[in-house]
Design brief:
Length: 219
DNA sequence: GCGACAG
DNA sequence: ATCTTGTCGC
């Protein structure tokens, strides 16, 4: 399951098949635990982290990490095949199962409507949101500079996501449905997690944190 | 043929 | 993803 050895053509057709299983309506009861997912790759060695937060307080309560070489080269539209396997490794190390996961990448805002958030959402059978820092497909109008504003992204006549201002005067985030969440809720949960978001401060703190693959203790 | 299409 | 500098808001 985590040994993905596909050609680009096979990967692409698998996406078309999996895309038929994506559900674009919200099926969330209560979100008690929400998780952020990201992968860092250096010299073809990947490090993945899934941080589970208590949604009420946004305090971290669990983390799953993984370290392994990546094999699939990056190709636009096929990010899930590069980062997916190591994300599964990290997910298996979680002790607390999140109700909702936010990915660093697109959901249905994707050529075959199956970005990494949708792909992993279907495979994990969990609600997911795509939250990318750069747009992929589609076009959108202007959005105001104030935090919380957003504008829909269209591909032809289809709404595939929204450009969302997560903080005043900052670069927008590109939010899209991953799986089992509608766009309105996707935007809502992303903004809720950006409650005190400030990129420069986040970066400064991140620089001070020693990279580690051991599981921190929260108790 | 050219451009676009996360990380 | 990466790299660098300047600018602005709080």
């Amino acid at each position: 399951m985590t040994n993905w050895t596909f050609s680009s053509e096979e990967a692409s057709s698998l996406q078309q098949e999996l895309a038929t299983h994506v559900e674009r309506t919200t099926q969330l009861n209560q979100v008690r635990y929400i998780a952020g997912v990201d992968v860092h790759i250096h010299n073809e060695v990947g490090r993945a982290a899934i941080v589970v937060l208590d949604f009420a307080t946004l305090k971290p309560i669990d983390v799953g990490t993984a370290l392994r070489p990546v094999t699939f080269a990056y190709k636009p539209g096929l990010l899930a095949f590069r980062e997916g396997p190591i994300i599964f490794d990290a997910f298996e190390r979680l002790e607390i199962r999140p109700d909702l996961l936010i990915f660093d990448g697109h959901g249905i805002a994707h050529p075959r409507r199956l970005g990494i958030a949708s792909h992993l959402g279907v495979m994990l059978n969990l609600p997911t949101i795509g939250c990318a820092r750069a747009p992929s497909l589609g076009h959108h109008g202007n959005l105001s500079k104030s935090k919380g504003s957003y504008t829909l992204i269209f591909d032809e006549s289809e709404v595939i996501g929204a450009a969302v201002r997560s903080h005043d005067n900052g670069k927008p985030l590109y939010v899209s449905i991953g799986h089992r969440v509608d766009l309105t809720d996707s935007i809502k949960y992303v903004l809720a997690c950006c409650r005190d978001y400030r990129l420069p401060e986040t970066t400064r703190w991140a620089d001070k944190i020693e990279r580690r693959v051991e599981k921190p203790k929260f108790k």
